[in-house]
Amino acid sequence: MVGQALATRLVELGHDVVMGARDATNDKAAQWASTAGATGGRAAAGSFADAADHGEVVVNATSGMASLDALAAAGDAALAGKVLIDVANPLDFSGGFPPSLSVCNTDSLAEQIQRAHPDARVVKALNTVNADIMVHPERIPGAHTIFVAGDDADAKAVVVGLLTEFGWREILDLGGIQAARGLEMYLPLWLSMMTAQGTYNINIHVLKP
Amino acid sequence: MVGQALATRLVELGHDVVMGARDATNDKAAQWASTAGATGGRAAAGSFADAADHGEVVVNATSGMASLDALAAAGDAALAGKVLIDVANPLDFSGGFPPSLSVCNTDSLAEQIQRAHPDARVVKALNTVNADIMVHPERIPGAHTIFVAGDDADAKAVVVGLLTEFGWREILDLGGIQAARGLEMYLPLWLSMMTAQGTYNINIHVLKP
Fold first, then answer.
1. Which member of B100, B106, B189 has the closest CB to residue A183?
2. What is the interface size between A and B, counted as CB pairs within 8 Å?
3. Chain B residue closest to A102 (CA)?
4. B202 to chain A, minimum CA–CA distance in Å?
5. CB of A187 closer than 8 Å to CB of B179
6. Cβ <8 Å between A192 and B144
7. What is the pTM of this model?
8. ipTM of the complex as predicted
9. Cβ(B72)–Cβ(B85) under 8 Å?
10. With 90 as the cut, is the pLDDT of residue A36 above it?
11. What percent helix, strand, coil does chain A show, rounded to 5?
12. Among B54, B57, B69, B66, CA closest to B20
C-alpha cells in the first residue's frame, strides 16, 4: 500500500519508477505498472534487484520485518552509492494489536539497513505518517512536520527535494541515521493517537517559542 | 527540577503540597518549602511516605530509574486509592547521551508502577514536555497537545482538571495505561527534536483533517 502510493505519486510527478517485488512476475506490481503508466512518467514492474538497479533513488517500502531480506535480494552492488529512503517500520504483529517493535531503543531498522549496505546512503523518512498523507500532506490542513535522518547530507538534500515535490513544507532534519530510533519508536504513540482520534490521517506539528 | 516546577506551580494555584524526598531532612526540599510557602497554598517538605500520606493526588517526579524504589518507600498503603500522576521517564544515561530507555516496547514504567501499586490510580501525563512547559504551556505560542493515559477514568478527570489549571487547552486522552508505552518511547524523538531545534522548549500539536 505504501509502495503503491509512493510509486503512483512519483509517476504522476514525472519520475520513472520500477516497482520491485520478491517475484519479478508479481501480479499486483504488474497491475500497478499498467495502470500508473498512463498518468505521467514511466511505470514498470520487476524483481527487487530490477528496481534497485533502475533507480537513482531506491525506496524501501517493504514490511519492516522483511526489509533486510528484501534489500539483500535487491543486492548490495545495486544499492551502492544510491539514495535509499527507508520508509519501513519494524512492527511485529505476531502478538496481536498493538504491535511491538522488532528492533528499538539501542538500534533501529534504518541503522541495520545502513550497516548491511554501508555504501548505500540511507535516509529515514515518511515512516511517521500513513501512505495517503506521505504523498498528499495537504490532506491535513495547517502546518505539520515531516522528518529526515541520515548520515549523508547530499542524500538528505535529494530526499528533501522529493518531499517538497510531494507538497511538504515543514521538513525537520534530525541529524544522523541514529535519530531513526526516535522516528521508529514514535510508532506506538502514533498508533495510540490514531485510535484516540479515530482516523489514520493524523500528524504532528513541532512547535517552539 | 520537575518536582520543584510542579510543586511551585501547584502552591501558586492555592494547593497544599508536601515535597517528598528519600531523606525527610533533605536540604533542597526544605529550602523549596520555605521559599514556595510565601506564594499561595501551604508548602512543606518530608519523606516520600510523608508526601504520599499527605496528598489526595501524588506526583511521581523522581528519576525514572529510581521511581519504583521511591514509590516503594512511599508505601503501598499511602498510595492506595490515590490519583498517582507519573511524570517520570525511564531514561538510562549509563551509556552516555543520547540515553536509552530502561523499559520499553512490551512494557512501560507507568505499567510497572501500576502493577507494583494496584490500588493506586496511575495516570501517565506531562512526561512529553520539559518542566517549564509542563506548568506554563503558554510559553510555546499556538495550540499544542498534552496527553493522559490511565485505566481509571475518574483519576484521569482529576488530572485533566489540574492540567487545565496549568493552562493546557488541548488534552488528548490516549486510553488505558498501556498507552504509556508510546508516551515513554516518544522520548528519543523528543530528544532529537530538541537537538535539531536548539531548545528544550518544544512540543507537538496533533492534527487531523
1. B189
2. 134
3. B105
4. 5
5. no
6. no
7. 0.96
8. 0.95
9. no
10. no
11. 45, 20, 35
12. B54
Which residue type occupies A32?
A: W
Is B35's Cβ below 8 Å from some Cβ in A? no
| Helical spans, DSSP H, in chain A | 2-12, 27-36, 48-54, 67-74, 76-79, 109-116, 131-135, 153-166, 180-185, 187-197
State the smallest CA–CA distance between residue A199 and chain B in angstroms.
8
Is there a contact between A199 and B209 if contact means CB atoms under 8 Å apart?
yes
Dig out the grid coordinates for B3 from the structure: 518536582
Q: Provide the pLDDT confidence category of residue B83 given band limits of 50, 70 and 90.
A: very high
Write out residues 146-175 of A within 8 Å (CB-CB) of B. 149, 172-175
Question: Are A207 and B208 a contacting pair at CB < 8 A?
Answer: no
Residues β-bridged to residue A171: A146
pLDDT tens column, A161-207: 999 999 999 999 999 999 999 999 999 999 999 999 999 999 999 99
- Interhelix angle B109-116/B67-74, rounded to 10 degrees, is 20
CB contact under 8 A, B196 and A186: no
How far does CA A209 lie from the centroid of its chain?
Answer: 31
Is pLDDT at B37 greater than 80 in this prediction? no
What are the cell numbers at A119?
555504501
A107: contact with B, CB 8 A cutoff: no
Compute the Cα dihedral for B35, B41, B44, B47 and give only its sign: negative
Question: Residue B39 above 80 pLDDT?
Answer: no
Grid cell of A55 as nine digits? 533507480
- CA pair distance B179, B176, nearest whole angstrom: 6
CB B19 within 8 A of CB B3: yes
**Cell numbers linked to B94:** 549509563
Residues B155 and B161: their CA atoms lie apart, in Å, by: 10
- B66 — pLDDT class (breaks 50, 70, 90): very high
Q: Give CA–CA dist B91/B100, Å, rounded.
A: 6
